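Most newcomers find our protein records easier to grasp once they have seen one. There is nothing in a record beyond a sequence line and a structure line. Getting from the letters to the tokens is the skill we practise here. An example says more than a description, so a record of this kind follows:
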Amino acid sequence: MKQILSNSGATARDGIKKRLQDVLVEYGSNPTQLARLFKVNQKTLNNQVNGDTDISASTILLFLDAFSDLSAEWLLRGVGDMRLLPDGLPDVQDVEIGKLEEENRNLKILLADRDLQILKMQGENQVNKKTAVG
């Protein structure tokens, strides 16, 4: 197996190893289960994930295959969320913005109704003043 990270990239390697371990915890798995599932050497996989053995490209690909919603960007660089958003689901920020925009529209409608009520009451007040004086 070609190693993708050697001792020269120790910090990056350690970060990826930590994220691989986090993935196993998140998904309730372990190197033994993955080795059996993908028919790879359990000792090699375990040493890459938990030991001093460098991580191979095939191990990275194995994790990405095993956990289909795992973000490669997060796994390799630590950027973004561990899990990808499922297709078709809006981003939480977009949902919040949509809710705020709807609430803003509703408040504008309420304010317009209040403005009409105020104008109506002012008109009635003028009529009442004329009636009281006259």
